UniProtKB/TrEMBL annotation:
GO molecular function, one term: 3-carboxyethylcatechol 2,3-dioxygenase activity
Keyword presence, Oxidoreductase: yes
Extradiol ring-cleavage dioxygenase class III enzyme subunit B domain span: 9-278
Assigned EC number: 1.13.11.16
Annotated keywords: Oxidoreductase, Plasmid
Keyword Oxidoreductase: yes
Gene3D superfamilies to which the protein is assigned, alphabetical: LigB-like
Name of the featured protein: 3-carboxyethylcatechol 2,3-dioxygenase
Pfam families to which the protein is assigned, alphabetical: LigB
Source organism of the structure: Rhodococcus rhodochrous
Signal peptide residue numbers: none
């Protein structure tokens, strides 16, 4: 059930969108994202809980299944400078303690440096990294073994119970997906520097453009629209095989939807953008 004191927005992200500085591609997606941003401005949250994945930047040698950041920043990337995030430490600490009491052995993270998975939705939906306080909640979507979808939903349920106790106006964001298979994530490697990452991506980009799976994307959006948890579990657990390595990021959507109360999420837009190698979508709670 949707919560009056909560707004859920789930949105795809893509470095390709930022490289497209002249905004040639993804016109429909950008329009949908703008509509979601207008809804965020109207809602005007006290703070944000942001479920994001990691592209093997912040977590390489130790990879928490779930984490809560007590302090964090974003790396310099895509023409943007490095910047600190305004993490409300008391709320973040209380959330971490609640999750531990709820039998989730989370990673408590301090001074982690996050990438566009967190930075892009903040810029796109709020207009800047510092518009609202934000609690980053990393979910492992990149480095196997990954959490099963049912457990991700249970994790979101636990966050929901915490937020129910606070009485705050909270924007809950899930970021990533839908179908895509970035060359760098197809590698079963956890230690890759930026130069090697760029080479792998450049070489694999032509093939990655053909790996979008609109049928799977639409099935997933339909499951969110009807809040069909059984379908969401089945589709998400099969994401890698059916929709590419990057589709694993829909785990952040699962967590966000559950944290928002588990109600339906309506798709504002869906657009497969080959130039960004991703099925791009935005979905929002009522």
């Amino acid at each position: 059930m949707a919560k009056r004191d909560r707004l859920v927005v789930c949105a795809s992200h893509s470095p390709g969108m930022e490289r497209d500085v002249e905004k040639v591609f993804g016109t429909s997606f950008r329009d949908g994202l703008a509509r979601a941003a207008a809804r965020v401005r109207e809602f005007d949250p006290d703070y944000i809980v942001l479920f994001g994945g990691d592209h093997r930047r912040a977590f390489r040698h130790v990879v928490p299944t779930f984490g809560v950041a007590l302090s964090a920043g974003v790396i310099a990337e895509g023409g943007h400078a490095a910047s600190a995030l305004a993490v409300p430490q008391d709320r973040a600490r209380a959330l971490a303690e609640h999750l531990l009491k709820s039998h989730f052995d989370i990673g408590v993270c301090r001074d982690i440096e996050l990438d566009h998975a967190f930075a892009q939705p903040l810029r796109d939906l709020t207009g800047g990294l510092d518009r609202y306080p934000v609690i980053p909640v990393p979910v492992n979507c990149a480095t196997a073994p990954l959490p099963h979808a049912r457990r991700v939903l249970e994790f979101g349920d636990a966050v929901c119970r915490f937020l129910d106790e606070q009485g705050d106006r909270v924007l809950v964001i899930g970021t990533g997906g839908l179908s895509h298979s970035p060359p760098s994530l197809e590698l079963d490697a956890y230690e890759i520097d930026d130069e090697e990452r760029a080479r792998v991506i450049a070489e694999g980009l032509p093939g990655a453009r053909k790996k979008i799976k609109p049928e799977w994307d639409k099935s997933l959006l339909d499951a969110f629209a009807t809040a069909d948890r059984a379908a969401l579990v089945e589709l998400s657990d099969a994401a890698h095989a059916r929709a590419g390595a990057g589709a694993n990021e829909v785990r952040t959507w699962l967590a966000a939807s559950a944290a928002g109360g588990g109600g339906p999420l309506s798709a504002l837009v869906y657009e497969p953008v080959e130039e960004w190698i991703t099925g791009m979508a935005v979905a929002i709670s009522a």
